[in-house]
Specification:
single chain, seven-stranded antiparallel beta sheet, 257 residues, TANGO2, Penicillin V Acylase, Chain A, NRDE family protein, six-stranded antiparallel beta sheet
Length: 257
Amino acid sequence: MCLAVLALRVLPHLPVLIAANRDEYHARPTAPAAPWDDGSGIIAGRDLKSGGTWMGMTRGGRYALVTNFRDPMRVLPDAPSRGDLVGDFLLGKETPAEYMARIDAQGARYNGYNLIVGDLDGAWYGSNRGGPARPLAPGIYALSNHLLDTPWPKLARTKAAFTRLLQERAQPDIDGLLDALADRSAAPDAELPDTGISLERERFLSSPFIVDPVYGTRSSSVLALDSRECRLHERRFGPDGNKVGEVDLRYPLHAPA
């Protein structure tokens, strides 16, 4: 996951709404979004190399997402997969606050990450590059490969498009949300961040939707939760940026055991 915008307890009828792009190497094996066949109850895409996921939900109303924190000078070659953090929360029974407290204590084991975990009662954000985890008040948030709401150009543009959509429509439609993620324009050089990589690479990574034969946007997804239903809609893309698949998963919500 490399870009996500979230509306948390902003819409009265839809307390959780997330639109997100996953950028990854096209050669990395990935399973489309689906209920996992291991009986875990997780509904998500899956990284078939590490076994984890970048964003997912359960029918009990739990959800989580993770992004890498871009920090090329601090890389642990044998660190555990950050994608395991999402599944770990989804499988568990801890509250978001309890889970974040536990993971904060283990954060040094991992390469840089941003993690959001939540349920219908609230959400928490944490990063092992940004101080203690904290609860998220109702609002609209944007996340990429730096700390929450860092004003990178692609985040600012996507958050603005997402916010306009919520203001214009009482019930945002899936196509509109996915369109907000589809911006392929790079940011001007003067607006690019300096994250320790080359200017050429910063420019390449500055568009919300990345098209490249080797590395690019693999999927755009919308995750939505209300008091009755959980929904995960995923649109997948190939190296040319064209759609190669789409799935819309909707399930009645049930109280956790």
